[in-house]
């Protein structure tokens, strides 16, 4: 799984660097506008049924067959809603191109939704190596499509082609990798079947939580697009995307594994083993993601110069500001496997509502200071939200707030030492390598110092080994 994540990152990063230079900020801003609708539909898509398949102790084939049919019908209906949403966005932003763009992106979402149950089955069966291969293969195909279209002068449609091919290839791969369908020959459950109703109820709670999260998480981009235009929104979107990169590449795959593992341990009824497992997952996540987030803060200028190019200087302060708030996101992301494993969907929705309220407050409070002010509002709101949601979300659980937060302390301290050294060397690295490649020696110094400190201390070294063990599970 680690090798798959690394390969996926390398391919995506190279493609992103080329597209940023070839297309400029405007197409990325238009894509961000379209994603205001499609991202919400992706959150609704699948309706939480895939997560329900992972979480349920046993699966009823007939109930699964009915769920598959319902998922297809609702997905088609959602695509119609996406098309209407594109028309509304076109009016709001004054960009007619958003109508066909959103409709096209929606087709990819529809195809992705069709494989949501297969994704759940693949994860439930712990086939993480297959998932990694699917992710890498779909990204390679999508990046090839995007680069080909961009070279042909397709503009924003190159980005749409990239997303559509990724989602389609991923769906095909999941259907093949899921293995035998549990509902084969089992018929279709009735609408009042208890097994079907249990899956439906769990999936509904998960979907509501994701919709709330997406709506609040995109408010900043909605306001920036309206007030500052597509080019500024493109800079903000890409800064936001790269700020989140450590969590997407390091934390997201680990939480995928942790969710499946936590479900099994909680179902076994051993509270001590369950808590120990989540503490171990938090330690591994912090060891990997905290230094990456700190490096984004320290080296924001060289990172932007390398991955986006000289025309994207507007994104440098935004990347640094947005990275500040992500340290608070790490424990809150690890809270989700706990609530999913315990089947507590109401707290998931409540936690997302609390986070949404703070996000709205942050955007509203920072809007008077323009795009940087909104970025600061978003970052600071994450700490306020974490202070409320962590104790609320773990109520009644064997896992404590300390189990999720305390593992950040040592990696943060070691990252601070490494970050200070990299910060001090930034002027010299820029003179030596130029602004575009200054990030290379800075990354070497930061990574070497952090790795040396981590591996020389028994506690951090044990967390690295624990993380490798988690990610290698099948």
Question: Mind explaining what this structure looks like?
Answer:
The protein has a domain at 1-217. The chain is 84% helix and 0% strand. It has helices at 2-23, 25-44, 49-55, 61-93, 98-114, 116-124, 128-151, 156-177, 194-217, 219-228, 230-243, 245-268, 271-298, 300-307, 315-324, 329-341, 345-366, 370-393, 401-405, 409-437, 439-456, 458-471. Helix 5 runs parallel beside helix 8. The longest helix is centred in the N-terminal third of the chain and has 33 residues, at 61-93.
Overall average pLDDT: 84
Label the structural class. Answer: mainly alpha
Q: How far apart, in Å, are the first and last alpha carbons?
A: 9 Å
Which strand-content bin applies to the residues?
under 5%
| Order of SSEs | HHHHHHHHHHHHHHHHHHHHHH
Instruction: Find the count of extended strands (DSSP E, 2+ residues).
Output: 0
Q: What's the tally of helices?
A: 22
Global morphology: globular
Q: Residue ranges: pLDDT <50 for 5 or more in a row?
A: none
Helix content: over 70%
Q: Biggest β-sheet, characterized?
A: none
* Overall radius of gyration: 22 Å
Characteristic terms for this protein:
474 residues; 0% strand; globular
Produce a short descriptive summary.
The chain starts with a helix and ends with a helix. The protein has 474 residues and is an all-alpha fold. The protein has helices spanning 2-23, 25-44, 49-55, 61-93, 98-114, 116-124, 128-151, 156-177, 194-217, 219-228, 230-243, 245-268, 271-298, 300-307, 315-324, 329-341, 345-366, 370-393, 401-405, 409-437, 439-456, 458-471.
């Amino acid at each position: 799984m680690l090798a798959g994540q690394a390969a996926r990152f390398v391919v995506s990063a190279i493609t992103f660097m080329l597209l940023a230079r070839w297309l400029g900020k405007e197409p990325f801003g238009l894509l961000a506008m379209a994603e205001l609708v499609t991202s919400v539909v992706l959150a609704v898509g699948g309706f939480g049924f895939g997560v329900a398949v992972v979480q349920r102790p046993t699966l009823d084939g007939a109930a699964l067959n009915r769920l598959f049919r319902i998922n297809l019908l609702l997905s088609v209906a959602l695509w119609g809603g996406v098309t209407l949403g594109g028309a509304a966005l076109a009016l709001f932003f004054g960009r007619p191109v958003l109508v066909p763009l959103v409709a096209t992106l929606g087709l990819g979402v529809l195809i992705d939704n069709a494989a949501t149950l297969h994704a759940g089955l693949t994860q439930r069966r712990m086939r993480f190596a297959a998932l990694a291969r699917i992710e890498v293969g779909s990204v390679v195909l999508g990046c090839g499509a995007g680069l080909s279209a961009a070279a042909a002068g397709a503009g924003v449609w190159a980005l749409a082609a990239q997303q559509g091919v990724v989602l389609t290839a991923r769906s095909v791969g999941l259907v093949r990798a899921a293995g035998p369908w549990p509902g084969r020959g089992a018929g279709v459950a009735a609408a009042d079947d208890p097994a079907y109703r249990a899956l439906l109820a769990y999936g509904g709670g998960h979907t509501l939580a994701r919709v709330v999260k997406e709506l609040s998480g995109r408010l900043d981009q909605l306001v920036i697009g309206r007030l500052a235009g597509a080019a500024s929104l493109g800079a903000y979107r890409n800064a936001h995307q790269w700020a989140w990169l450590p969590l997407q590449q390091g934390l997201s795959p680990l939480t995928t594994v942790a969710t499946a593992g936590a479900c099994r341990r909680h179902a076994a009824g051993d509270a001590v083993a369950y808590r120990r497992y989540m503490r171990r997952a938090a330690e591994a996540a912090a060891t990997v993601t905290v230094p990456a987030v700190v490096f984004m803060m320290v080296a924001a200028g060289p990172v932007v110069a390398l991955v986006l190019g000289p025309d994207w200087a507007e994104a440098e302060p935004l990347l640094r500001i947005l990275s500040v708030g992500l340290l608070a996101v790490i424990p809150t992301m690890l809270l989700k496997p706990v609530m999913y494993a315990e089947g507590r969907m109401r707290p998931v929705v409540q936690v997302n509502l609390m986070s949404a309220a703070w996000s709205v407050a942050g955007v509203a409070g920072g809007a008077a200071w323009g795009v940087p002010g909104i970025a600061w509002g978003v970052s600071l709101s994450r700490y306020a939200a974490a202070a409320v949601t962590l104790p609320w979300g773990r109520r009644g659980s064997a896992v404590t707030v300390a189990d999720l937060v305390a593992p950040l302390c040592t990696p943060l301290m070691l990252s601070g030492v490494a970050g200070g050294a990299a910060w001090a060397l930034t002027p010299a690295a820029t003179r030596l390598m130029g602004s575009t490649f200054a990030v290379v020696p800075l990354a070497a110094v930061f990574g070497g110092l952090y790795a040396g400190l981590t591996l020389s201390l028994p506690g951090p070294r044990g967390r690295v080994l624990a993380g490798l063990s988690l990610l290698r599970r099948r």
